[in-house]
Amino acid sequence: MIKILHYLFLIRFRKLVSKDDSIAMFLIVFFYLGAAVVVYINYEVFRNYMILFFVDVIAYHLQRRDIEILKLKKNYKTILFTEYIIYSLPFYLVLAVKKEFIFIAGILLFKIILINAPRLNLKVIRYPFNLFNAHWHISFRKYKLIYVFPLLVALIFVAVSYKNENLIFLVYLVLSFIACVPSFEREKTEEIKLNTFSAKKYLIFQLKNAFFNTFYLVIPVVVTLCLFQEWQKIVFILLVFIPPLINVLFKYIYFENHFLQQIIFSLFIASNIFLFGVPLLALPFTYIKAIKTLNTIKIC
């Protein structure tokens, strides 16, 4: 069982850890422990958000594909349960020290139900996204992003119940991040060259595509907020549209360097938060630069 758990850890972190890379594994463990220490020191700040530290395990379980293989072992449910406890063990220890035993029991019970629940086949879901950018469909199917939305609705319920408006803004942040994911993907340069649109028209269509597809994403959240009569918070939903549109521009400015796009985009969003949106004044120049880059791609 220990050997199986070892391989399961390697499989989960295969994108971050190469084979026999003990240093990387140590850094991941150190990160988890460090995060738990920070939460413990600032527990009163994180208390209402503790559930978020256990959500990643739920998302991982829903999208994993090795469960059918694990079923060949009679004790596969015990293996899964042990694996999920180990993933979140530092945060369980924080809750135990803070004597949140009911909370711990609730999480463990939920994981038992999750492991024993029948698998859902969501391959038949038809997304309403415009196909001008196929990466919206690809990203949602590849990363199983649809699973996030029930959790967002649950977060809104918690926010309203505990009168914690910060959780609603966290929902907006997650929505905005999801809407940015397709723009981190790349179409082939041949697709851009063969497209009959001019560089400007192509970029405009990509921006329209990002806007309307993001609109589809916010609908369930807006409906939920309406049910709870959180009218004042609905106005701020417009902020969700800004990062995805900006990311489309950076995608084409740094089309040849995916890593640089991520860095510049993150710095740009962070600077807007700390400088109260002043960097947004540079967007017209960013728009022009994106068109120039697209023209270069079409000509080459």
From TrEMBL:
Keywords (A to Z) from UniProt: Membrane, Transmembrane, Transmembrane helix
Ranges annotated as spanning the membrane: 21-40, 75-95, 101-122, 143-161, 167-184, 210-228, 234-255, 267-288
Superkingdom of source: Bacteria
Protein name per the record: Uncharacterized protein
Organism: Flavobacterium hibernum
Taxonomic path: Bacteria, Pseudomonadati, Bacteroidota, Flavobacteriia, Flavobacteriales
